[in-house]
Amino acid sequence: MNNLIIAGKSYSSRLLVGTGKYKDFTETRLAIESSGAQIITVAIRRTNIGQNPDEPNLLDVLPPSKYTLLPNTAGCYTLDDAVRTLRLARELLDGHRLVKLEVLGDPKTLYPNMIETLKAAEILVKENFDVMVYTSDDPIIARQLEEIGCVAIMPLASLIGSGMGILNPWNLQIIIDNAKIPVLVDAGVGTASDAAIAMELGCDGVLMNTAIAAAQNPVLMASAMRKAVEAGREAFLAGRMARKLYSASPSSPTSGIIASKPPK
Fold first, then answer.
1. pTM of the entire structure?
2. What is the DSSP letter of 190?
3. Does residue 9 have an active-site annotation?
4. Rg (alpha carbons) of the chain, rounded to whole number
């Protein structure tokens, strides 16, 4: 399979994973290793990557030499907070450019505030950040984010942390069909079949956190998600058979068989 290309860099894994909600850094490390993910997203407001010198540092178990870190703005509800957070991340990570932007609308749904997101994306792109952006499933908004200069569009499949799966396949398909940059499902995946469906639709990748971290066995679920993303991508590339309602087609040859005529 061809690799995922984001901001000019190639990745063999199309599964991106988060680092929150695990019981400790050891479980985080084991689950991420099991996932095979190469891009790891980190909530700067919730995870220590050096801003708190007296606390355990995530980078000690997930070193930047091994993974591409993707600082995100989880917990930000204004463009000012989001931009400030990513500027801090760039300082902490020695000029790191690849970031994930999310500006949330309210604490109950965690749905994106797209007015603030668009404004923040424009500022960050002008400051030479490579912006991957969490967005609604609105195809027009997705196009505007691409025109601004974002390097990847990340529409939600359903609400963050809901585990409800792909509720909006038709909108996702429109975004995928029209985008010239990678489209990755972000939010709502609950189990491996959800990840496979996203990839079968033609998504370039899937980002998840809760689906793995909240599983009864996070390390095993991480392995399942890796296989699901790979299988879904292969199925998309292979091209599924056409759906034929009320038109069955036998898999075995029918010529030369000894049988009576089928009923009408």
1. 0.87
2. -
3. no
4. 21
